[in-house]
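Format is sequence with structure; example below:
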Amino acid sequence: MTFLETIFARLVRAADANVLCEVRDGRSIPVTGSQVMGLIEQARAFVASRGIQKGDRCALIASNSIRWAALDLALMAEGAIVVPLYSRQAPVELVGMMKDSTPALICCEGAALAAKLKEQWQEGTSDGPPITLLDEIFGGEREVECRALMIHADSDPVTIIYTSGTAGEPKGVVLNAGNVSFMLGATNGRLDELMGLSTNAPGETERVFHYLPFCFAGSWILLLTALSRTSVLSMSQDLNKLADELSVAAPNYFLNVPALLERFRTRIEENIQKTGGWIAGVYARAKKEYLRAAADAGSALDRLCLSFARMVIFPNIRKRISPNLKALICGSAPLARETQLFFEMIGIPVLQVYGLTETTAICTMDDPLHVEAGRVGPAISGIEMKVAENGEILVRGPNIFPGYWQRPEATAQAITDGWFHTGDQGEADASGNWRITGRLKNLIILSSGHNVAPEPLEDALAARLPEAQQVVLLGNQRGFLSALITWPLANGPSTDGGRDGRANSGAHRAARVEAAIEAMNANQPHYKQIRQFHLLGEPFTIESGLLTANGKLKRDAIAARFAAEIEEMYKRKSE
């Protein structure tokens, strides 16, 4: 069976059971398997009425919803290739990706976005394909007939997901039915292991929460996995109310990006500090004891505080996140080891996942029974991973995509003898547990010839400056490293400082940064020491064009936008 046949069979079995929910205004709005099937058939009838043929591309631009999931399944059932796009992305970027994928139909959530897309498209050479609103697809009465699924073979393409474009134009990654069927087998197997450790009552439905956009590969795989197993997936509808939504959903697990877990950790620790008194004191000693090296035994008081915190403080923290929480799952970017240890300390394991869109989102997954902070788990069963001579991770297996959409040269560069070149650097220990050390194309090559992976140093500096929002390391073909740091300032949009101690109205922040850099540099070789920095009062955002759609740094765009500030840093040091 293909993955789509598996999902449809599960929806039929769960005809009277809830399978999807939208969390709105403090309550859950569920739909059953039969209701989802009804929406799918309604959407299929609309798609068929528009003459969509097998292999036609159809763009889907909308926020997460029950209708998004139903339309995605309907399009694939009709043999269309779904092109999911991020509704928050700039219209010019969305139109660029659609012109590349040439969709026969554009399915859009709202009239305002549709108008912007039409306006942007009309600045080119044509009006583009028709744009249809979701209200039209799911509104009105249509004759619905039982139709066979149009996906028959593993080689049938089902989606084109555009890469984030951190260093260049986004490319369309084609994934086929075989890629997805293989991956759902792997994810279901790992989740079976996790839920086998659960305290849920026998036969109780698995509860999953989700807030990341379905247009991203990992997020989409989680959606399809949840639809293929006995679970209820609750979808966030307002990120500003995430804590309240979690309380309503009460999940066993949910997928995260590191930035959110960092915010969770910061908020929890800030609340403990605000509480003060003996609770703050006990927490500080408990944390100290937990993080202490095993060979360095702590005091009896510290050990007592850790035991007390495990019985009294940590259970309350876990309950506030979700009373049913078994684990957090994290992917998309490296998670700071300190943050992973924090959640482990309070009794919530963080299972890391590593992969790329080209690997159907996943290469490695943490084993729930053997989680090592700072590592991302072993390769999933059925695929191979190795390290090339230049330190790059290579992957081979049924999860590897067949190619980039209409880019044969880029495909040939990415895949050699079946091995996909990830562009990431990493290493595996003796047990096959992988650690990701950096991104090859982000490598900074100093004028001295030294190579520096920026990510570990950026993470280390960010950990010392929790109030700062982003850190970007610079120095390619320069004599030393420097850093751009985003940190909202009370007085003016930006300030800068250097190792000589100069600062303006943000002097206290500049002093904090300088102290953090001093402490870091003390443990680094000379070529990894940061010699200058510049503070920016506004964070990098998707809207400003400095972050990708899934929140990764657009390093080339950042360097271009702040070229004058960067030049000033290097000029200041040479004076």
Q: What stands out?
A: The chain is about 40% helix and 20% strand. Confidence is low (pLDDT under 50) at residues 491-504. The CA atoms of residues 107 and 399 lie 28 Å apart.
